[in-house]
Amino acid sequence: MLLHLFFSLSVFLTLIDNGNAGITSSFIRNERPSVDIPLENDVFAVPKGYNAPQQVHITQGDYEGKAVLISWVTPDKPGPSQVRYGLSEGKYEFTVEGSFTNYTFYNYKSGYIHKCFLDGLQYDTKYYYEIGNGDSARNFWFETPPKVDPDASYKFGIIGDLGQTYNSLSTLQHYMNSGAKSVLFVGDLSYADRYKYHDVGVRWDSWGRFVEQSAAYQPWMWSAGNHEIEYMPFMGEVTMFKSYLYRYPTPYKASNSTSPLWYSIRRASAHIIVLSTYSPFVKYTPQWKWLREEWKNIDREKTPWLIVLIHVPIYNSNVAHFMEGESMRSVFEGWFIEHKVDVIFAGHVHAYERSYRVSNIHYNISSGDPYPVLDKAAPVYITVGDGGNQEGLASRFRDPQPDYSAFREASFGHSTLDIKNRTHAFYHWNRNDDGKKVKIDSFVLHNQYWGRNYQRRKFNKNRLHSVILNRASTAQL
Ligand SMILES: *[C@@H]1O[C@H](CO)[C@@H](O)[C@H](O)[C@H]1NC(C)=O
Ligand SMILES: *[C@@H]1O[C@H](CO)[C@@H](O)[C@H](O)[C@H]1NC(C)=O
Ligand SMILES: *[C@@H]1O[C@H](CO)[C@@H](O)[C@H](O)[C@H]1NC(C)=O
Ligand SMILES: *[C@@H]1O[C@H](CO)[C@@H](O)[C@H](O)[C@H]1NC(C)=O
Ligand SMILES: [Fe+2]
Questions:
Q1: For 333-391, what is each residue's pLDDT tens digit?
Q2: Cα–Cα distance list, 118 to 58, 148, 267, 381, 398 (Å)
Q3: What is the pLDDT of residue 9?
Q4: Burial (Cβ within 10 Å: 0-12, 13-18, ≥19) of residue 117
Q5: Which ligand is nearest to the CA of 150?
Q6: Which residues line ligand 2 (CB under 6 A)?
Q7: pLDDT-based confidence at 224, cuts 50/70/90?
Q8: Exposed, middle or buried, 335 (CB in 10 Å: 0-12/13-18/19+)?
Q9: Residues in domain Purple acid phosphatase N-terminal (predicted)?
Q10: Of the candidates 26, 24, 27, 28, which has an alpha carbon nearest to the alpha carbon of residue 408?
Q11: How many whole angstroms separate alpha carbon 170 and alpha carbon 468?
């Protein structure tokens, strides 16, 4: 107790000394080898039965959460693109017909990629579904979110840069124990582009079978990273995002987007905007114009929580990918502040980092202060590119830790955002292999719209409190 008091006091004094000093966790865990799991491993097992549906995954299908888009692959022949579903297991009172497509990538020929749209679902309901026929039929279930409502509670998981290594498997398994209801995926899915020729397609297929254990049962909201670009002229493949776009449909039309690479959805009490780092975003481009209109659709009285997903982080202090987010910052940061985005999740950097609420909008090319400043209207920026892919950890952080960086650690893991009501959400970063109870970095996120007055009163106290907690939990390790 005395020790604890002394510890808190010394942290407090340190804080007074250097303002917003962030924390660089010194924790180091031995990595598993950064190699992909061999194809013959059970995590990639092909389901039994002739032409059995595999790589089953779902995503939100509409703007408000009453539809689901189900996608899967049949390897041998098209077969039916049909989903049978209902409210109890084995009793499927509804049938929907979907469609299928296929593509080639160099000399790889994809299986038949099916897509089926389930519409008019009830909120907050468990549905059971079946795809495939006879001996090859497979059964799954999913739960719809609560009705869009300012106080609807909902727990999201956030995963990025997952890949298909033993570290990826650890992340996936830990995520599946978190109790979160859907995944906000911040780009770089399979890392299949690390392979050549035929194997690119093969590793997309194995990744689809790998994530099925979660993605067939709860929606994953997709966004694209650089590993989805697959610009490979040496193989004659120059169509950007080809495999990704064939395999991972998004509900972009529902938010009046003209590209599956950027879109928005509402889910429970959250409005989620997905942006594409690797699509044009400067002024007058389609993405920029769409986002300009999209701000008008946000109603914080209905969806208090405003979340943005991008691949490349804007406030990153890792040596890896340092300043790669500058171009997007200079275009979009003003909007993020103006519209009081609550939190921005990014991936790309294979480590974990969280920023303070900072902005750098006063700087322009001829004048102004070039340094980010604390800004209560700014989002918290969180990098979770720590899914565990074969490229390994980004373990070198810039030294000293910049003022904008609140906490950083080079370990694999995932995050959860547990929204309680319109004012409070519990955020938690979960390092792999610690079990679900170890909170390495966690804090209460106060809503930027509803929590503003509340926050003004508590801002300083809370930040200090959170910093002390972080120091304490880091120091205990
Ligand atoms: C798609 O499947 C059809 C029917 O099996 C086949 O004839 C066609 O060549 C395939 N197309 C591509 C692009 O692989
Ligand atoms: C999309 O555009 C249509 C037609 O202009 C409009 O009725 C609808 O509200 C828009 N939806 C969104 C989510 O912006
Ligand atoms: C550039 O910054 C200066 C000083 O903050 C400001 O007066 C000026 O309006 C800014 N110009 C633009 C185009 O933003
Ligand atoms: C919102 O949730 C927080 C955390 O559970 C709780 O302390 C607060 O009282 C809730 N607010 C309302 C209005 O229910
Ligand atoms: Fe990336």
A1: 999 999 999 999 999 999 999 999 999 999 988 998 889 999 999 999 999 999 999 99
A2: 10, 18, 16, 34, 47
A3: 36
A4: middle
A5: 4
A6: 63, 255-256, 297
A7: very high
A8: middle
A9: 53-144
A10: 24
A11: 29
